[in-house]
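Researcher: I'd like a structural prediction for the single chain below. Treat it as a standalone chain; there are no partners to consider.
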Amino acid sequence: MKNSQDEALRWLHEHVELVEGDVGPSKGNKRSTKETYLDLIELALNGYDLPAFHQASVDAGTGHIPDVQAYSRVTSIVGILLANGRIPEHRQLWASMMTACCEDLHRHEGNLMVDFAVKEVMLAYFAMEDKVDSALSAPWLTALGLIEPYRNYYYTNITVTDKEKLHNINIYNMVGEYLRERAGLTDATAYFAAHWPHQLTLFDENGMYKDPGNPTLYDLTTRCQIQLLLGSGYEGPYREALDEQLKKAGLQTLFMQSAAGELPYGGRSNQYLFNEALLAANAEYEACRYKELGDLKTAGAFKRAARLAIDSLHRWLIEESPPRHIKNFFPTDSGYGTEDYGYYAKYMATFGTFLYIAVLSVDDSIEEYTCPAEIGGYAWQTSDAFHKVFANCGGYSIEIDTRADAYYDATGLGRLHKRGVPSELALSMPCAAEPKYRLPETVRGKALSLCAGWMIEAGDVQWLCEGELAPECKVVIVNEALDEVEWSVTYSGGEIPEGMRIRETYALTEAGLAIGVEQLGEVEHVPYYQVPLLLTNGKYETMITSEDKGISVVMGDYRYDVVSEHKLTTVESKLGNRNGIYTLARFEGEMGRPLQLLLKLTSGE
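Model: Treating it as a single chain, here is the predicted structure.
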């Protein structure tokens, strides 16, 4: 499909259908989407012992809050729940937490945690504005009025003089400044004029935000902060330009959602539960946009996408106690799969505060229509800045990264999802060569994706995902139909021998993903293909069995089959990504002939 607004809207109008009857995991439950979101926010809060958290977070002598980012987010979700008639037993504690936040924020100097925290405290204030006595809230406003952006924030054009580093965090603090303006505490006009012109240069042609390294999560989280700004009433000189970026990129997000309901992988902060909270928040906002435009089909598709995103999280939130904050089942205190900044105390609350952005937009009068993630029948490419290819058909979806960030991902096919099957069973993201997230000492960091390889002179196999230099890449969409999508990706340059090209062909149907590997050009090598195989997600171990024609991985009622007539070699290794620990299967082809495989996922349910 051509990656354009017009093409996307034509596709939606042609293919989406009204969803009839009860929907969602709790059929017959007529509760509103808003109440469902609040249920999940409350579940997130259940991961905290609030009195102990408060006592441990605030210095009893000075009132200083070292981790004011995490503390403000917990404070925010407590206030949000109180405002909606929940957890009344924590009302007095919340007032103490608000007082601690408000009195401490202006005492930090050049602290990037304050860049995030002001927005959170202001959201809690507005949620509870009409539910607290002015004698209590007046001192909060006085203290919040003492904030000086160029003194308290870090990400400003004065502190960060290199514009390449003035990225998404600056937008967070601008949203905080606008919310302070809305409360009558400041005038953000000059601050916006100093920062928005630069920020507006950081969107690609599809409206996606280019944070350093172009991670997919930081595109979406930045756009969700902007929608919070616009949804809170901002009508200043940058509104029209910002809204245009949101409108373009909303369609990108809709078509990139996986068959399992998840946000694409790619770069920093991926695989945390708040990824899908942001997907839902963006989808709710865009649903309202298209309802206002009178386009009820597109509005309903976004509404449905929000539901699928949240439904995908039930196994991490509802089936586990306490709830998880990242998509694995390793002990929370191990930090498995997390960056240094991705600890539980901060990112469990972050799920709640980001889901509140969805609450602020939710409109349950919008009827759900089927969305691209569940219909399929298309291929979709991002701009070259994000270098991703997506396809969806027959209940399956894939994601390919053609020029990966070696600290987080690997070049090649990094995701194969099927609706109703645990997303990590085949692969939800690649393994990184030099992961910037935590893995145990017994688990190696190594570039790993589903990708082709070729024999090199030393007798070893060089794999596409291991190349230090980014190869050149050409993507050709061959066929897009509801029952089959076909495309090819041809790589050359980089570590690929001169005179040789690697072409991977793909056909996605309800039978699975058929893959072919060909070596083109003057230089011939024996073709190889590697497939990661899940060993454990931290809770469940798999059973891996070699078959007559391939190999299978079984986890409970779910099965992953890799079918091929080519020579199979299993590699005893433990390689990790954020979701689990994997080993390897490698297939060896024949000189001059394509190597072929079929990948399929099945459920016993």
